Amino acid sequence: MREYPVQFCERLEVKPLHSTRPVVGFQHRHEAEQFLSELKGRMEKFGLALHPEKTRLIEFGRFATENRKKRQEGKPDTFNFLGFTYICVRSLKGKFLVKRNTITKRLRAKLQDLKEELRRRRHEPVAILGGWLRSVVRGYFNYHAVPGNIFPLGAFRTEVIRSWYRSLKRRSQRSKITWDRFGKVANMWIPQARILHPYPEERFYAIHPR
Q: In this structure, what are the phi and psi dihedrals at residue 107, rounded to the nearest 5 degrees?
C-alpha cells in the first residue's frame, strides 16, 4: 500500500491530504469489507484512523437497484467525488448508466462567490465584465460539462446571467435596462450550456482501440 505524507497541525493533530480520500470499488461485498478491515489495521500501526462519518460502504453499480428492490430497500446510495455526485440511473432504453451531477453545495458556493465579485466590480464597463464572466463560465463548463450534467450547467448559466442583471440594475436608481434588452447582451457574452466531454467508454476506446 502506498504511504502518503501528512501535515501536522499546531494541536498535534494529523490532517491527511486530499489524495488520501479515495473511492475504491469491489465486485463483492465481502471483498470490500476485508479491504476496509485491513486498511483500518494498517492505519492503526501509524497511530491514524479513518473518519467515521466520511468512511462508508455503499451498494453501487449495475445490479444495485435490482438487488435493493428484492430486499425492499430504497434507491442505491450516492457518493461525491471530484466535484460530482455519482448516481445509479437507467437510460430510456434501459441501459445502466452512472450519472454525474455537479455537487449542489459546491454549485451554490461558486455562485455566491461570483455574486460577491460582481457586487465589487459592478461599476466596471459592460465589456470588461462580460469578458470576465465569459472566461469564468467557460472555465466552469470545461470541467463540469460531462454527459448527463446538462441541467446543472443550464442552471449555473441562468444564475450567472441573473446575478449580472441585478448587479447592473443596482448601478443607479434610474437604470433603464430591461430584461429583454439585457438578454441580447448576455447571449453575446455568456456561452451556452452544452456537453463538452465524451462518455468514459468513448475516451477509453479512443486511447485503447480494439
A: -60, -45
Cell readout for 83 is 466535484
Domain range summary for the chain, segments of one domain joined by +: 1-57, 59-102, 104-189
Position 50: which residue type? Answer: L
Q: What share of the chain is helix, strand, coil (3-state, %, to 5)?
A: 50, 10, 40
Residues 119-173: tens digit of each pLDDT: 999 889 999 999 999 999 999 999 999 999 999 999 999 999 999 999 988 887 6
Give the Cα separation of 68 and 52 in Å (integer).
24
CA distances to 104, 110, 178, 203 from 138, rounded to whole Å, are 19, 14, 25, 21
Ranges assigned E (strand) in the chain: 6-8, 14-16, 79-81, 84-90, 96-102
15-45 tens-digit pLDDT = 555 545 788 888 889 999 999 999 999 989 9
